[in-house]
C-alpha cells in the first residue's frame, strides 16, 4: 500500500488540491475567465464606470468561445483550462444565429445607457459602440449572405492553411500534437462553411465567375500538391525540428499528420465540387449593384469603411479630382528628369515599370534581395521616429514573403500584428509572385505603409497602450482609421526626408495615386456599373499598375466592396485635422502631441477622431 499522506496537514492539503482539480475538471471556464481577466489587467486600464465595465465584458466574453482568437492573441497559458490550441472556431450557421441573439441582448443594454450621466470619455465610447453596433445589426439582418466564405482573396479555404502555418505555435510536443488535431478539425469547419455557401446560393446570391475560377485553382493546388510538399506538412516538419522529441515519436506524428492531410484533401475535394456547382450560376455583373438590394448594400459598406455619410457619387468625383492633381505632380517630376510628358502617362508608367534599373533578377536570389531591401528601409525608418512621436512601440516588425500557395491572388503587401505575449512577432508580408511588379522606387512607400510609421506603429502602440480600457483597444476597428493612418504615414515619411531621389518621390506619389484611383474604381464597379475589365484598364492607364497587379487589386475590390475607399478618405481627414490644429495653435502646435492624440485613444470613427482633435486644440489654445 502506498502512503499518500504522512500527516493531518498533508491530508488536508491533498484534499484541497483534489477539490481544486475536481472544480477545474467540471468548470474550467470559470477559471479560464478569471485568468483571462487577470491577464487583461496588464493590457489595459481598469474600467471605472458602468458603461466601460459593460463594454470591457463584451470584449472578454467572446474570446473564450473562439479558439483561434485565443491562439492569435498568444494566450498559450490558458490552454490547460480551455484546450483551445487543439480546436478551431465554430463556423456553423446555428452558432452565428446564437451569437446574434447574444448580440441583440448587448445591443438592447447598450442603448439603455443614459449618455448624460456618463463621464466625457465614456460618452465618446458610447457613441462609437452605438455606431459599431448599428452597423453590425443591419449587416446581419439585411446582408448576411452577401459576402461569400470561399472568395479568392483571403477566403476561408486559404485562412485555415495560413493560420496553421503562420499562427499556430510549435514550441513543444503538446503543440505538435495540437497541430495535428487542428488539421483534423479543418474538414469539420469546411463542412460548416459549405452550409453557409449553400444558404447563400438558396438566397440567389452568387459571385462573379472569376471568383469561382480562382478559388477552384487554389483548391486544386491544395488538393493536388503532394503531401510531402504541402504547406501544412512543410510547416510542421520545420517546426518539430526545433522541438525535443524522440525520433520514434516524430515518425509517429508525421504518419498521423499525413493521415490528417489526406482527410484535409478529401474535404477540399468536396468543397471543390460545391464551388464548381455554384460557378454554373455565377452572376453576370461584377458590381454589387447587381445583387438584390445591392445599392443599399453598397451604402452600408461605404458607411462601414469610411465611417462617413459620403455618397458613392461624392467619393467617385473626389477620386477623379485627386487622380488629376497627383498625375500633374508626377508629370512635373518626369519633365525635370528628361521625360517627354506629351507621351500619355500610362506609357511613361510602363517605361518606368519595365526599366531594368528598377527591377530585380527573376530568381530566388532576386526575391531574397527584395526582402533584404525592405529590411534595410525598415531599419532606416526606425531612426527618425523619435523626432515625430512621443510614444514608440516595444514590439518590432519583421519582413516576410507572402506564402507561395496564396500569393497569386494576394495583395502587394499586408501586415499581421504580433501576439499579445510577444511569442509571434509582428510581420509585414511582401508579395513576390510577379517579381516585375516590384520596382525599387516604389518600395519605400510600401514599407512606410505596412511597417513604420504605418500599420505597425499604430497597431503595436494600440496593443501596448495600458492607459486605455480593454474595449478602447480591442472593441472596435475601422479601415478609415487604420488604413487612413498608414497612408498618412507615407506622406509623413516624405516630410521626414526619407525619400532620397526623384524616382522614389514618383513611387510615393504613385502610391497616393493608387489610393485616389481606388475611390474611382470601387465606386465605378459597385455604383456605376463598370465591368472588371474597365476597372483593370483604368488602374493601368491612370495609376501605373502592371497588368498582374491591377487585376489582383480589382478582383479584391469586387469581393470586398467599399474597403478600398477607406485609405484616402481616412488620410484626407487626418491631414485636414493636422492642418486645422497647426492653424489654430500656431507656435503651440506639436507634431508629437498631435500624433499622440490620434494614436493613443484607440481606433475611432473619423467623426469621433475629429471631436478629440478639436478638444486637443481647445485645451492648448
Q: What does this protein look like?
A:
This protein is mainly α and 621 residues long. Among the domains are: 148-284; 297-573, no CATH class. The chain contains 26 helices and 3 strands. It has helices at residues 8-26, 28-41, 50-63, 67-72, 79-82, 93-110, 120-143, 156-167, 173-202, 209-224, 231-240, 247-279, 294-306, 312-336, 345-353, 364-382, 443-450, 455-464, 470-474, 479-495, 502-526, 532-543, 547-559, 566-585, 591-599, 606-620, and strands at 397-401, 413-416, 426-430. The chain has a 3-stranded mixed β-sheet with strand order 1-3-2, covered by helices on one side. It is globular, with a radius of gyration of 26 Å. The termini are far apart.
How many angstroms does the end-to-end distance come to? 82 Å
Low-confidence stretches: 1-13, 15-25
Mean pLDDT: 92
Listing every helix as H and every strand as E from the N terminus to the C terminus, the arrangement reads: HHHHHHHHHHHHHHHHEEEHHHHHHHHHH
Question: Topology, please?
Answer:
Blueprint: H1 8-26, H2 28-41, H3 50-63, H4 67-72, H5 79-82, H6 93-110, H7 120-143, H8 156-167, H9 173-202, H10 209-224, H11 231-240, H12 247-279, H13 294-306, H14 312-336, H15 345-353, H16 364-382, E1 397-401, E2 413-416, E3 426-430, H17 443-450, H18 455-464, H19 470-474, H20 479-495, H21 502-526, H22 532-543, H23 547-559, H24 566-585, H25 591-599, H26 606-620
Parallel strand pairs: 1-3
Antiparallel strand pairs: 2-3
Helix pairs in contact: 1-2, 6-7, 7-13, 8-9, 8-11, 9-11, 9-12, 10-12, 11-12, 14-21, 15-22, 16-17, 17-20, 17-21, 20-21, 20-24, 21-22, 22-23, 24-26
Amino acid at each position: 500500500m502506498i502512503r499518500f499522506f504522512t500527516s493531518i496537514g498533508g491530508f488536508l492539503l491533498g484534499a484541497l488540491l483534489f477539490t481544486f482539480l475536481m472544480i477545474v475538471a467540471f468548470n474550467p471556464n470559470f477559471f479560464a475567465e478569471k485568468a483571462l481577466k487577470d491577464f487583461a489587467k496588464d493590457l489595459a486600464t481598469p474600467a471605472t464606470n458602468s458603461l466601460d465595465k459593460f463594454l470591457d465584458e463584451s470584449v472578454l466574453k467572446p474570446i473564450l468561445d473562439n479558439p483561434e482568437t485565443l491562439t492569435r492573441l498568444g494566450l498559450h497559458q490558458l490552454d490547460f483550462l480551455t484546450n483551445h490550441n487543439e480546436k478551431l472556431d465554430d463556423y456553423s450557421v446555428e452558432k452565428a444565429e446564437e451569437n446574434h441573439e447574444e448580440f441583440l441582448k448587448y445591443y438592447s443594454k447598450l442603448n439603455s445607457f443614459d449618455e448624460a450621466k456618463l463621464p466625457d470619455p465614456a460618452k465618446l465610447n458610447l457613441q462609437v459602440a452605438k455606431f459599431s453596433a448599428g452597423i453590425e445589426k443591419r449587416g446581419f439582418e439585411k446582408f448576411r449572405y452577401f459576402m461569400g466564405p470561399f472568395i479568392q482573396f483571403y477566403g476561408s479555404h486559404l485562412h485555415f492553411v495560413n493560420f496553421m502555418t503562420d499562427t499556430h505555435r510549435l514550441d513543444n510536443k503538446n503543440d505538435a500534437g495540437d497541430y495535428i488535431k487542428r488539421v483534423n478539425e479543418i474538414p469539420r469547419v469546411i463542412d460548416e462553411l459549405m452550409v453557409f455557401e449553400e444558404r447563400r446560393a438558396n438566397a440567389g446570391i452568387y459571385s462573379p465567375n472569376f471568383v469561382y475560377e480562382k478559388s477552384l485553382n487554389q483548391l486544386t493546388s491544395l488538393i493536388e500538391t503532394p503531401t510531402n510538399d504541402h504547406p501544412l506538412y512543410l510547416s510542421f516538419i520545420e517546426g518539430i525540428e526545433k522541438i525535443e522529441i524522440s525520433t520514434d515519436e516524430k515518425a509517429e506524428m508525421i504518419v498521423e499528420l499525413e493521415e490528417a492531410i489526406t482527410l484535409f484533401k478529401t474535404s477540399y475535394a468536396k468543397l471543390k465540387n460545391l464551388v464548381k456547382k455554384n460557378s454554373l450560376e455565377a452572376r453576370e455583373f461584377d458590381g454589387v449593384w447587381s445583387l438584390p438590394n445591392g445599392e443599399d448594400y453598397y451604402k452600408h459598406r461605404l458607411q462601414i469603411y469610411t465611417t462617413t455619410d459620403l455618397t458613392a457619387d461624392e467619393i467617385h468625383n473626389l477620386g477623379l479630382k485627386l487622380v488629376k492633381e497627383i498625375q500633374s505632380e508626377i508629370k512635373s517630376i518626369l519633365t525635370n528628369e528628361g521625360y517627354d510628358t506629351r507621351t500619355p502617362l500610362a506609357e511613361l508608367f510602363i517605361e518606368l515599370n519595365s526599366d531594368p534599373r528598377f527591377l530585380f533578377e527573376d530568381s530566388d536570389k532576386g526575391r531574397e534581395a527584395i526582402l533584404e531591401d525592405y529590411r534595410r528601409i525598415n531599419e532606416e525608418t526606425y531612426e527618425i521616429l523619435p523626432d515625430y512621436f512621443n510614444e514608440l512601440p516595444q514590439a518590432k516588425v519583421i519582413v516576410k514573403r507572402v506564402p507561395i500557395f496564396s500569393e497569386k491572388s494576394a495583395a502587394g503587401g499586408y501586415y499581421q500584428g504580433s501576439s499579445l505575449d510577444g511569442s509571434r512577432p509582428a510581420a509585414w508580408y511582401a508579395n513576390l509572385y510577379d517579381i516585375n511588379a516590384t520596382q525599387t522606387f516604389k518600395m519605400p512607400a510600401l514599407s512606410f505603409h505596412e511597417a513604420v510609421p504605418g500599420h505597425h506603429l499604430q497597431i503595436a502602440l494600440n496593443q501596448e497602450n495600458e492607459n486605455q480600457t480593454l474595449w478602447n483597444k480591442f472593441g472596435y476597428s475601422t479601415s478609415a482609421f487604420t488604413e487612413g493612418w498608414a497612408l498618412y504615414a507615407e506622406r509623413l515619411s516624405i516630410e521626414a526626408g526619407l525619400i532620397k531621389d526623384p524616382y522614389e518621390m514618383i513611387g510615393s506619389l504613385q502610391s497616393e495615386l493608387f489610393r485616389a484611383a481606388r475611390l474611382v474604381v470601387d465606386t465605378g464597379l459597385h455604383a456605376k456599373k463598370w465591368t472588371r475589365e474597365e476597372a483593370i484598364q483604368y488602374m493601368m492607364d491612370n495609376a501605373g499598375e502592371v497588368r498582374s497587379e491591377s487585376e489582383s487589386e480589382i478582383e479584391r475590390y469586387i469581393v470586398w466592396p467599399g474597403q478600398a475607399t477607406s485609405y484616402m478618405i481616412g488620410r484626407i481627414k487626418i491631414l485636414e485635422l493636422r492642418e486645422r490644429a497647426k492653424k489654430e495653435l500656431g507656435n503651440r502646435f506639436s507634431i508629437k502631441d498631435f500624433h499622440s492624440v490620434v494614436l493613443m485613444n484607440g481606433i475611432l470613427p473619423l467623426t469621433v477622431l475629429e471631436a478629440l482633435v478639436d478638444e486637443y486644440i481647445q485645451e492648448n489654445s
